[in-house]
Design brief:
Four copies of one chain form a homotetramer.
Chain A (H helix, E strand, L loop, with lengths): L3 E6 L4 H10 L5 E7 L8 H4 L11 E2 L11 E4 L6 H7 L6 E4 L9 H8 L8 H4 L1 E2 L2 H10 L2 E3 L3 H15 L8 E7 L14 H4 L4 E2 L7 H13 L5 E7 L6 E7 L7 H11 L6 E3 L15 E8 L4 E8 L3 H15 L16
Helix pairs in contact in A: 1-11, 6-11, 7-9
C-alpha cells in the first residue's frame, strides 16, 4: 500500500512535536512536510533537540505546504491563526485536521461569544466534523475538515457520554472539576508557567468562562438532545502531562455502581481507546498513550454519581486523537500506530 | 512572664517535627520534653537531621512526660493510640491538645462507624472541644482537652462556614473536591507514597468514605443548625504541603459575588489567620504559614456558588492551629509565634 | 519468520514492567511467560494497573518458566537471587539475559568484595558476557548468558570509552559525578524514596563504595589495557527516570574540543543508540528511549576534559539494552522494537 | 533601641521579596521604603500575592528612596543596573548592601572580562567589601558598601575555605560540580525556566564560563595566598530552592576523614550559620534558613578529598546573608532575625 503523505503545519509547538513523535513510527505514513514560519530553514532537531539524529524534513513556511502534495494536513496552530489557513486551503486536494479551537463549535456566533473575536471563515462550520471518534466516527471518515477536540472536552465528554446519551442525570446538575498538566498551556514560556510559579503549587484558573466549557455543553446537549449546562472549573497541576476530570451529577432516578459500570462498558464496547477501569484512574496510567481511562461510581449515602476520567492531554487530548482521526479518514484501522503503552513510572 | 512548659508526645513524625519547628521560635514557650517510644534515648536531630545543631531535649518514652511537669502536652500520635494517653492522663494537671482524630467527633458511636474501631475512652467526648478557633474560640480557652481538627476539615469548614452559619445554601447540594499534598499521609514510607508513584501523577482516593467527611458534616450541621451532608472527594497532589478545597453549592435564593465576598469578610473580620482574598488562592501563597486563604465567587450562568480555600496542611491544618489553640488556652495573644510569612517560591 | 519466545522472570518490578512495555510492541517477539513468586496467579494488569485491558500471560512462579519453552529468558530479579536461577537453569535450552549485578564483574572474589556476599555459582563468570553492545557486540551474539550492565555503568562507560580506548587521559584522574532518578532504587517503597523525602530535595549517597564503581573500573581497565580507578559519586534527583553523568578527566597531552568530538563521532559511528550531540544533553531528551546522548568538551582555561552523558536508566540503562542484547543474540537487527522517540515534554 | 530604617530597592523580584519575608519578622528593623520602577504605585501584595493582608509600604520608584532616610539600603537589582545606583548614592548617608554581581570582583578589568561590559563606577571597587561574613566579618562591620556574594560562590567557598586557608590541597586540582534550584535564575519567565522544560529534567549549563567561577577563584586565591583555578560546572535541578556543591580536590599530603572534619569544625567554630554535619547534606535540610551545611570526607581508595556543601540560594545564598551583613554593619548580634528552622518536608 502506498503511504499516506502528511504535513504538520506548526511543527515546533508541543502538539506539532507530539504529532511527529507519534507519526515517525506510524507504519503507513510518510511525513512530507513540516512547517514553522518563525523557524523556517532550520532542521527540526535544531528546534526540538530530543530529535537529534532522527531524519525529518527541513522546516518550511506554512504557505509552501501545498508544493509537497500531502494527503492530510495537520494544523497545529493557535486558534485565530488556524482558521486563516483552513480558509486559504478550502479548495485544496488534501484533508485537514485542525487541532485548534477554530471549528469546534456549532456556529460562528457561538465562537465569537466564547473566543471574543470574529471568525474569518464562517462557512467552514458547515463542513467541519467534531473529531471525537467515540461520538462521530462515521462522519469523520468522510469529512475534509476535522475539528480536533479540546483536551478538557475529550476528558469530560468521554466521562459523561453514557450518562448523557441515556439521559441518566439531571441536565443542570453537572459539575466538572478538571485538573491539567502544564503542557496544556503550550510551549511558550509565560509568567504563569514559570517553573517556580507552578512547582509545588496548585490553583484553579479560568473559572466560569474557560472555552472548553461550551464545547462540553454543545457535545453534551447533542447527546442528551436537550440543553445541558455544566460547571467547569480547571486547575493547574505541577506535572507535564495529563488531565483528570472529577465529575459529579445527580441521577434522575435511583441507580447503583453496578448498573452504571454496565452502562459504561456497554457504551464503549467498540472503542479501543476507552478503558472502563475498576480502580480510580491516574495520570501516569495513561501517560504517552491514546487511552482514556474512566471509572464510574455511585455514592448511596449522598445520592451522587461520581465519574473519574483521565487521559494524556498531548496524546488522546490532542496529537493522538488527531492521528486516530487521520486513520479514520484514510481508511486505516483506527488503532494503527497508536498502541504504545503507558510510560509508568 | 514565666514561660509555658510544653511537651511534644510523638515528636518524630511530621506533625511532631512541625510543632518543634514552630515552637522553637515561640517567645513564650519552653519545650521541656519530647517523646518517641521507638527512638527514645536518641537526640532529636539524629532522627530529624534538619535540626542538626539546634538545642532540643533528648527523646524520652511517652510515659515519662509527666516527670517534666508540662503545662500543655501536644499529642502528635496516630488515632487509636492517642486516646489511650488521653485516658491515662485524664487526671493530670496539664492540658492536652490532641492532634489525632480520636476526639473530634460528637460521640463514640459516630467514631466507631467511621473509624471502624471501639473507642477506649468514651467519657473524653464530653470534655473535648473541637479545636477550630474560628468557630469555637471561647470554648477552647477554658477546656483541658482540645481535639485539633483534621486538615481537610479545617480547609472545608473555613471555606463553608459563612454559607452555613447564614443558611445561604441548599444543605444537601455541597460538593467538596479536595486536593492535598503528600505529607498528609505521614512520615512513614508506604507503597502509595513511593516517589515514582506520586510524582508526575494525580488521582482521587478514599472516595465516599474519607474520615474527614463526618467531621465536615458535623461542624457544618452545628453551624447550619440542621443536618448537612457533603460529597467529599480527596485527591493526592505531587507536592509536599498544602490543601486546596474547591467547593460547589447551590444558593437557596439569588446572590452575587459582591454579596458573598461581603458576607465572608464580615464573618472573618476578627480572625487573624483567615484571609478573604480577591484572587484564586494557591498552595504556595500559604506555605509554611498559619493562614487559610479563601476566595468566593458566584457563577451567574450556572447559578452555583464557588469557594476556593487553601492552607498548609502541616501548619494551619495541624501544628500551627495546635499552637494557636495553645495560645488561646494559655491566655496569650492568638497570633504569638505564628506570624512567619509564606515561603514562596 | 517464527517469533522469538521470551519469558520475563520477575515481571512486576520496574525493569520487568519496562521489559513488557517495550516487548509488547516488538514485532518479532512472543511473550510466553511472565513470573512473580509473590503475585503468581494474578493477571499482570492487577499488579501493574497501567496495563489494564492489555493482553498478557497470567503471572506464574519463576520455577514454571521452563514449561513454556522460551528461547530467551530475562531475569529481572534482585542480585543475590538471580544467580540461583542462572545456576538452576545452566543446562536449559534457553539463553539468559540477567539484569541483576550477579555476573557483571570479572571474578567471584571481586563480587564478594563489593557485594559483601558469597557467590553461589562461580562457574557462571566464565560464560557470562558483559552486555554493553557498544563494547562487546560480537561476544554477545554468541553467548548463552548476558550480564546486562548497571545503569550508572552504561552512562559512565559510554561517556568514557573513546578516552579509554585511545588512552587519551591520565588513568587516575577520572571523576564521575552521577545523578539518577528515583526508579533506579526499584519499585519497593523505602524511607529514602518516600515522596516528601525526595521531592524538592537533592543529595549525594553511597559515596566511595557504590557497586557500579567496580563495573566502571573493570570496563575502563579493559579498554585502557591498564588499571583505572575512578571517583564515582552518585546523587539522587527528584525525577522518575534518567541518569546524567558529568565526567572530568585530565588529558595526557594537549587536545581540543574539535579533536575530542571527532574522536567520539568516529568511535560511535556504527552505534545506532549513541548520539554524539552538540549541545549539553538532558534527561528528557532521552526519556523513554534507548538513546545515550553524549557531549564532550575541553576547557582550555583549566586543562580539563568534560564529558556529559545521559540515558534513561530503565531503558538504555536496563530493559532497553536488554532487548538490544536479545536482538543481537537472536540474529535480529539491533534496533528492532527500540525506535520509539523521546517523550518530551 | 531605635529601629534600623531599611529600604529594599527592587522589591518585586525573588531576592527583594525574600528580603521582605525575612525582615518583616526582624525585631530591630523598620521597613521604610520598597521600590519597583515598573510597579511603582501598587501595593506590594498586588505584585507578590502571598503577602496579601500583610502591612508593607506602597511601591515607589528607586529614585525616591532617599526621601525616606533609610539607614541601610538593599539593592536587589540586576547586575549592570545596580552599579548605577551605587554610583548615584555614593555620597548618601545610608549604607548599601548590593546583592548584584557588580562589586564582587577585585577590579573593573576583571569585571569586564567576565561580565562582558564596562563598569560605570570603577572607584566603587576600592570601598566594596565582599560580603561573606565567615571570611570578612570585621571588614563588613565598618564598610559603607557590601558586595553580597553569589549563591554558588558562597556554597563553594564555604565548602573550600578550610582547605584553602590551610593550603591542604593542590591548588589546580579543584573541581566543583554545582547543582542549583530554579529560583537562581530569577522571577522572570524565560524559555529555559518554562515548567515543562525544567520539570523531570536535569542538565548542565554555563559550563566553562559561569560568572561565579571568578568569584570562587578570587576568594580562594585570597585564602590560599596563591593563584587558584577551579573547574566549576553548574547544573539545573527541578526544584525551587537550594544549591548543593560537590567538590573534589587532591591533598598535597596524606590526610584522613577525621583530620579533615576536625579542621572544618575548628575553622567554623565561631560561625553560627555553618553547620559541619556528620551525614551528607540535603537541600531540604537547609530550606528557608540561613544555614550552610558541610560534610567533608576522604576516599582512601582514590586519594581524593570530597566536600559536600548545601544552602538555600535565596537565604544564605542571597537575602539571608544580606540580613546577616546588615546585622554586622548595624552592630546587632549576627543571628538576629535569622533563626528560623528548615521547612522540611
Amino acid at each position: 500500500m502506498e503511504k499516506i503523505k502528511i504535513a504538520i503545519v506548526g511543527a515546533t509547538g508541543y502538539t506539532g512535536s507530539e504529532l511527529f513523535r507519534i507519526l515517525y513510527n506510524h507504519p503507513d505514513v510518510s511525513i512530507v512536510a513540516m512547517t514553522s514560519n518563525s523557524q523556517a530553514g532550520k532542521s527540526f532537531a535544531d528546534v526540538q533537540k530530543q530529535f537529534s539524529g532522527i531524519p525529518a524534513p527541513v522546516l518550511i513556511p506554512h504557505d509552501e505546504v501545498q508544493q509537497y502534495h500531502p494527503d492530510v494536513v495537520f494544523l497545529a496552530l493557535p486558534h485565530g491563526i488556524s482558521m486563516k489557513y483552513v480558509q486559504q486551503w478550502q479548495e485544496a486536494a488534501f484533508k485537514i485536521i485542525d487541532l485548534s479551537g477554530d471549528f469546534r463549535l456549532s456556529a460562528p456566533e457561538v465562537y465569537t461569544r466564547w473566543y471574543h473575536k470574529e471568525h474569518c471563515f464562517p462557512e467552514g462550520f458547515r463542513h467541519a466534523v467534531y473529531g471525537l471518534p467515540e461520538l462521530h466516527r462515521e462522519a469523520i471518515k468522510t469529512t475534509k475538515l476535522v475539528a480536533n477536540p479540546g483536551c478538557f472536552t475529550s476528558t469530560s465528554i468521554l466521562g459523561l457520554a453514557p450518562l448523557m446519551a441515556h439521559q441518566v442525570v439531571v441536565p443542570q446538575s453537572i459539575i466538572i472539576d478538571g485538573k491539567t498538566g502544564v503542557t496544556g498551556a503550550g510551549a511558550q514560556a509565560k509568567p504563569n508557567t514559570h517553573f517556580p510559579v507552578v512547582n509545588e503549587n496548585f490553583t484553579a484558573y479560568g473559572i466560569k468562562n474557560h472555552r472548553h466549557t461550551i464545547e462540553i455543553e454543545e457535545q453534551s446537549s447533542f447527546l442528551y438532545q436537550k440543553e445541558v449546562r455544566v460547571q467547569f472549573t480547571p486547575h493547574l497541576l505541577p506535572v507535564d502531562r495529563g488531565i483528570l476530570a472529577t465529575i459529579y451529577a445527580r441521577p434522575l432516578s435511583g441507580t447503583s455502581q453496578a448498573a452504571l459500570q454496565d452502562l459504561y462498558r456497554e457504551f464503549y464496547k467498540n472503542d479501543s481507546f476507552v478503558r472502563v477501569v475498576n480502580t480510580l484512574p491516574t495520570l501516569k496510567g495513561v501517560r504517552g498513550t491514546n487511552f482514556c481511562d474512566i471509572y464510574v461510581d455511585f455514592d448511596e449515602r449522598t445520592g451522587n454519581i461520581l465519574v473519574f476520567a483521565a487521559l494524556d492531554n498531548l496524546v488522546k487530548g490532542a496529537a493522538g486523537v488527531a492521528v486516530q482521526n487521520m486513520n479514520l479518514l484514510s481508511g486505516l484501522p483506527e488503532t494503527t500506530g497508536l498502541l504504545s503503552l503507558p510510560l509508568q513510572p
